[in-house]
Amino acid sequence: MEKSFDLSEKEVSLPPDLESGISSSPGRNSDSNSPYSSPSSVIHHLPSDAGEISPVGSQEQQFLQPRKRHQRNASLSISPTAAGFAEAEAEAGASSLLRVIFWILYATLPLGILGYFLASYAVDYRHSNHSGSGYYPDLPSGYASKTGNFDDFGIEFYDLQDYRSTPEGWNRDERVLFCVPLRDASAHLPMFFGHMRNLTYPHNLIDLAFLISDTSDSTIKDLKKHLAEIQSDPDSSFHFGRINIYEKDFGQIIGQSFSDRHGFQAQGPRRKLMAIARNWLLSTALRPDHAWVYWRDADVETIPATIIEDLMHHDRDVIVPNIWRPLPDWLGYEQPYDLNSWQESEGGIELADRLDEDAVIVEGYVEYATWRPHLAYLRDANGDPEVEMELDGIGGVSILSKANVFKSGSNFPAFSFQKHAETEGFGKLCKRMGYSVIGLPHYTIWHIYEPSSDDLRHMEWMAQEEKRRLERAKIQKFYDKAWKLAFEEVDEDWKRLKFNVFKNTDLRKTGRKIEVDWSEVDEYLLEMDDEYNSGASTEWYDEEENQDPMSLFEKYDDDFKDKLEKSKKTDNPHEEVFNSFPLNPYVSGKNGKNYQFVKFRKGNGDDIVNSQTNDEERKKESAEMELALSEARMLKEEENAKKIEEENALKAEKEKEAEMARKQKLKEEEEQAKVLKEQEDAKKKFEEAEMAKMKEQAAKRRAEKLERQKEKKRKEDEEMKRLNQIAIDKEMSRREIEKLKDPQEK
């Protein structure tokens, strides 16, 4: 085979295709650290005095064609026919090579596209898949990420300048982190999610974050159920963005009742643990693309659907509404609830200076008189809801804050910061950092009414009083019926009888002076009044007063029916029916049930002639009655003294049992605290072990990555050596050809 060479050039150069393939090969970076960054790195071992050989035909064909054994002895005569034939052959080889490259690309392009999409899906799945022991409900999400750019390595990029807080965040797609701490809140969740459905802020821009701690009811189960309902709604506008549920116990032992939570002694430890819980929730849920953070309690009864927009458009760093609660009518209908939103006063500053450094001031207790102006007490039902008031401390029922407040380092102090903690400490800290803290005195939301222990006791008394009133009305109805059936009005008859008795008698002509001695009656009545008013000696005749009204009703109901039947057979039915029938047991005193209806008895008392004898008999009977009464009184007093002694002994026994129970409870609390401490220590050891394990795994991954880099470097070095060797072989071939050509020219 004959080939023609052009020897006019004197400088060494690689073929253009190889040079371009080395300097800028597809799929590689043009980094200066790459071993293929320049052609000089490939040919730096070549001799410096080498010439250049350039075939007239295709350089690709010449450079890639293997050297034939018979080339050394081939004829080197140059003729036009041979040169044309060589050029045609080179062009045919080049077109054949292009066709092969085209068919290779045609066959591999679909596979490459499919592989690209599979790789993208694998990266997304790796970053969205949840692992570990955290709680992740199986819920659909309405969140569609418009932030952050992902590359092939799962790296997310954020420009934090894009996530500023503006007064019209709903028009600028600004995301809101909705934080809700929960503890034994199962009963409040239906009401809470009713409010959530009504929110007018775009739901897909709201990310929900729940922290469930120290709960003993079905809060987690019910929360997942309500979230599944709202996220599975056919109307996608109800779907919220990201939803995260975190569960962590903090050892809170204070009860959830109103009196337990608002007791003065419980405030300091309780507020510090609440601050820790809020900080855990915030630090785990806050993301770079959040522009606002909204805190809400679950037990809010009435709240506007536009609460987020209403607070956001004020464009304040931290802002809170006014919090009140409804009350029953017997407590005044309504009352300020959240007293933790206030302005600082001189009295508060002086009190803080006098307290220990670890003390925590809490509002609304007589132990800490601060004389601060409270946001709650400045409410006017008809006032302008846009009016603002600067605050130093805030409550935690409803807080809207710009996210950069927390991103800049502010949080809820779990210690005494300027003698305050949790939300009040947060307000103080924000003021110290130069942020605005604002309250709206006339924009009100309503917390639920939770009865205190005193309220519960009063409600129990009211229920008993209502029951007693109904029983009294029932018995009164019975007595009215008895009076109507068994008694007759005799006023008119007595007037006629009196007229008939005295119509023929002129008492003035009898010559006798008629006088009535009422002294004994007056003395008796006065004595009875004194005994009744003293309250000490009336129990002897009041035995039936302490009986159950319904039992008296049943007892005398049967007697009344029987005697009413017998009275129909007598001449005077009124003498038999009410022989020993009591009056209304609810009417006490002389005109009440201490007296009885006594039947009319005929005797010497009606004899006018022997009236003096009757007076002596009455005095004797009165003396006997007084003696009997005194004996009964003494007996009753002895019984009362004995009863009081027994009650005192029983009371002492109960106090002793209560003291023993208190000691037992203290012992149990100490044991529980010890168990909690052991559990906390075990958790800490476990977390330390997990952290060490993670560090070990990270070190192992770094070592593996370093080993892969070394292996990759080694392969690149081998590839570089191979290319250098190819270049050297080609150069040697060229020199051999020149050596063969030089004798022929000579």
From TrEMBL:
Supply the source organism for this entry.
Kuraishia capsulata CBS 1993
Write down the membrane topology.
Answer: Single-pass type II membrane protein
Task: Name the family the entry cites.
Answer: Belongs to the ANP1/MMN9/VAN1 family.
Bias (Basic and acidic residues): 1-12
Name the UniProt key words of this record, in alphabetical order.
Golgi apparatus, Membrane, Signal-anchor, Transmembrane, Transmembrane helix
Q: Which domain of life is it from?
A: Eukaryota
Localization per Swiss-Prot or TrEMBL: Golgi apparatus membrane
Would you tell me the Gene Ontology cellular component terms?
A: mannan polymerase complex
Composition bias (Low complexity) maps to 20-41
The record's region (Disordered) falls at 1-75, 604-623, 638-746
Which Pfam families does the annotation name?
Answer: Anp1
Q: What is this protein called?
A: Mannan polymerase II complex ANP1 subunit
Q: Name one GO biological process term.
A: protein N-linked glycosylation
InterPro entries per the record? Mannan_Polymerase_Subunit (IPR052086), Nucleotide-diphossugar_trans (IPR029044)
